[in-house]
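Collaborator request, handled under Task 6.
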Amino acid sequence: MSQSVVEGPPREVPGVARRKGPGAGERLARAAEHGWRPAALLLAGLALWWVTAAAELVEPYLVPSPGATLDVLTGRADYLWQHTWVTTYETLLGFGIAVAVGVLAAVVMVHSPTVEKTLYPVLLFAQVVPKIAVAPLFVVWLGFGITPKILIAVLIAFFPVVISMVTGLKAVDPEMLQLSATMGAGPWRTFTRIRFPASLPYLFSGLKVAVTLAVTGAVVGEFVGANEGLGYVILQANGNLDTPMLFAALLVMSLIGVVLFVLVDLAERLLLPWHAARRDTGATTAF
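Structure tokens returned to the collaborator:
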């Protein structure tokens, strides 16, 4: 005679509490806990800047006051916005090209050891060459248009993308690849279902570095030869000893990098919530 066994709900083990995901209130508390430190450091820097200018410890033409910088940001907002848009466009286009080419190059390098051994030293050599040194050549070859700025942004942002993607594609658990081959999955299915998803956390880490470097690349290109963009504004302000405008342009340029970094981080949290949650848990337990 067969005997059926009816299982009830799992019993709680004494002394062991179930682990629940953080709620909205807990996430806000964590953000507040970790957000006050950089906010306090930023406020301290602003206070030091204000005290230095108010006490006239440094000449105003060397370090303007926060008030003078704010006046430029508000009074010449249209002028700054016009050049900010140019730099942002160059940054986004260069970053997008670097991501597309970098991911494709990483996939080819991982699947072909011959290509990797041939291409990797060239990429390393191109990375160590100072971009400010080759920027004038791009201006000579391509003119004073937008193309040299985008190309420099691509060159600076390309290396972090390809290196992080190669690392991610190689970091796949070999047992998962063996299991996929045992179940009869082809190379394309293995790549789309196992390799590529597993490489995304590494890729996003490289994207955060690359997007900030792309801003630098665009501005470096504008330093060499341009008649618009924040790099052009900085050069003009420096030549005219207009330090309030120079500081204002530097603040806007930094803000572009911060905003783009936050957008990439937000994309990671939306596409990889499991990885973002694990990262936040690790950061919380570390302090």
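The cover message to the collaborator said: "The CA atoms of residues 106 and 163 lie 7 Å apart. The chain has a mean pLDDT of 82. Please let us know whether this matches your experimental observations."
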